Amino acid sequence: MNDLVAGANADETLRVSETRFSLLIDQLPFSLQIVDPSGRTVRVNRAWEKLWGITFAELSNYNLLEDEQLVEKGIMPYILRAFSGEAAEIPALPYVPNRGHYKGQERWTRSIIYPVLDEHYALREVVLIHEDITERVGAEQKLRAHEARQDLLLRLLQRQRETADPDAMMAAAAEAVGRHLRANRVGFFEMVDDETLRFTVSWTDGVLEPLSGTLQAASLGAGYLAQVRAGRTLGFADTSREPLTAGSLFGEIAARAIVGAPIIRNGRWIAGLYVNHSQVRAWHDDDIALVREVADQTWDAVERARAQQALHETQVRLEATLVASEIATWTWDVEHNRVTADQNLARMFTLSPEAAVGGSLERYLEAVHPEDRGRLQSIIAEALHSPSGRYEIDYRVLRADSSVRWVAARGQVERNAEGKATRFPGVVIDITERKRAEEGVAYQKRLLEALTESVLDAILIVSPEGRVVHFNERFLEMWRFPPEVIASRSDAAALQWAAQATTDPAGFLARVTEIYANPDRSIREELTMRDGRVYERFGSPIRSGDARLGWVWTFRDVTQARAAEGALREKEAFVRLLLDSAADGFYGVDREGVTTFCNAAFLRMLGFKREEEAIGKKLHGVIHHSQPDGKPYANHDCPIYRTAQTG
User: Fold this and answer.
1) What is the pLDDT of residues 238-289, one digit of tens each?
2) What's the gap between Cα 292 and its chain centre?
3) Are strands 268-277 and 257-265 parallel, antiparallel or unpaired?
4) Burial letters for 292-325: b for 16+ Cβ neighbours within 10 Å, e otherwise?
5) What is the pLDDT of residues 146-166, one digit of tens each?
6) CA distances from residue 456 to 120, 445, 451, 453, 533 in whole angstroms, order as listed
7) Mind listing the pLDDT tens digit for each residue in 394-443?
8) d(Cα 49, Cα 201) in Å, to the nearest integer?
9) What is the pTM of this model?
């Protein structure tokens, strides 16, 4: 009985141990497979099922020793070594599961296989432990790719530093990328405008022809073009099947697989780096990242090189311009009192070219006009001691031939770490012609002021921007503007004030607006003021060729003249009334005998019904149609006509 109890206890203990062992195996983070000596799998854990995408139940007919795939992959020798009683480590290998959790994803495993022997050293089981090292292998691959990319970029950077030729930089980059990616064609293009690409430098391995000439941006395909304009770097394995490249001409240039890196600066697409392959090809993220980095690095170098070339060309042009113009440069070594100047400065100050190199400041001061020399010395001293160190002055130079030239000098004091003035560079510009022009302008201004003040009319001159340029005293007297309007120099403010002084402010402003809107029109009209005065206004544009320089307005007080005209009209009406009341006929003629006026009695005598029948006509034939003897009465015989002719 005791033996039975002991046996039962032992069986229970074994069962519990096996259960614990099974639970332990299932909880292991790595894949584990146990195979019997015949090659049949007797146990796997959950990690193994997840890794391989196969359940234990599906291994009922599987024999490890008969797996042809293990033979093809070169793994079988390691397995046979374990079955012969020797542990082995199987090298890391990739595989792609066709089912399960990792279906379609490339995985990497490293395996250890070791035998389990009984007390007689006979093979009892073979255990395979598989470690999923996909992430580690991926990290190593990325590290190697990163190192290769950095190495390529460093080599490119070194080559870019060795040349100043932008095309050579692009050629080196294209070749480096092409050889690194084993692509068929790599190159750069630049944008002629927003819609046109121009191919520049390229490299090929001989499979594809280099690209040249221009290409319309729309030829990239509408979808891909939108991505490019957005600055996205993309790679396509097969352009003939890619929706984004639908409608493109990649097929015509034999670019089956592509990578494109647009170069965007200040929000504009200005250039790009392209990679072409003639066959379908899947691009890795590292490939695309490399193209992007090379594009940015190379274009930065290209822009620097072009900027340096432009700077050099600018310096050459500047030197040529300085030689051909009236601009001179100088540098004063303050500590040693040596002035180094160019040939232009030596010529301006009538010094020999030899004296311009290393001469003292005093030698240059001797050429300054005596009336300006003291002022110049004060400005130099002020620049040397002021915090800003700025130097700016116009002065006269008295040349050896006694001619006087005006120059404008500008400079900036440079100081050392202790704040002491060490260098004083600057420029001198001959401004003689400008000074003469300024004097001419000043004379013309004085002449204009004298002319406008000598006339009786009020004059106002306005710029095209509506600013009052000039007015005379008569203008102020007539319009009686308040001080603030005069101080503003604003045409709009003056118009508002003047409009309120008229009997029709709205009409006044409307006519000014109309004339300003039609720059080729002039205006002449009379303005009735609220106080009873009458002004005659005349406005006309000031033009110089096709350019409009402003407006000139003149105003004349015609109040007395209009009053005199009214009185005259009243007198004329009174005289007319007297004539029309007379019983005798009256009429008048000019020197040609044309009737200029007549009264009612005259019209009745001659049988005219209306005044229009007589006025403006020669009536000699009506009044004196013949002599008493019946002969014709010639004009020169008529005493009325003769009196009009001779007075």
Assistant:
1) 999 999 999 999 999 999 999 999 999 999 999 999 999 999 999 988 889 8
2) 25
3) antiparallel
4) bbbbbbbbebbeebeeeeeeeeeeeeeeeebeee
5) 777 777 777 777 777 778 889
6) 141, 19, 10, 8, 16
7) 999 988 888 898 999 999 999 998 889 999 998 888 888 888 887 777 76
8) 54
9) 0.43
The larger pLDDT score, comparing residue 81 to residue 146, is at 81
3-state percent helix, strand, coil for the chain, nearest multiple of 5: 45, 30, 30
Nearby residues of 282 by Cβ (< 8 Å), 6 or more positions away: 237, 257
Strand residues in 159-310 grouped as ranges (E)? 185-193, 196-204, 214-216, 234-236, 257-265, 268-277
- Of residues 144 and 253, the one with the higher pLDDT is 253
Task: Tell me if 149 sits within 8 A of 122, measured CB to CB.
Answer: no
Polymer length in residues for the chain: 647
Cα–chain center distance at 239: 35
Whole-number pLDDT of residue 621: 67
Q: Whose structure tokens read 């692009």?
A: 170
Domain parsing of the chain, residue ranges: 2-132, 141-308, 325-436, 454-561, 582-646
Q: Please check whether the two domains, 141-308 and 454-561, share a CATH topology.
A: yes
Angle at 247 between CA 246 and CA 249, to 5 degrees: 110
Q: Rounded CA gap, 75 and 3, in Å?
A: 49
Quick one: fold of 454-561?
Answer: Beta-Lactamase (3.30.450)
Q: Six-digit token pair at 30?
A: 């790595």
CA 365 to chain centre: 46
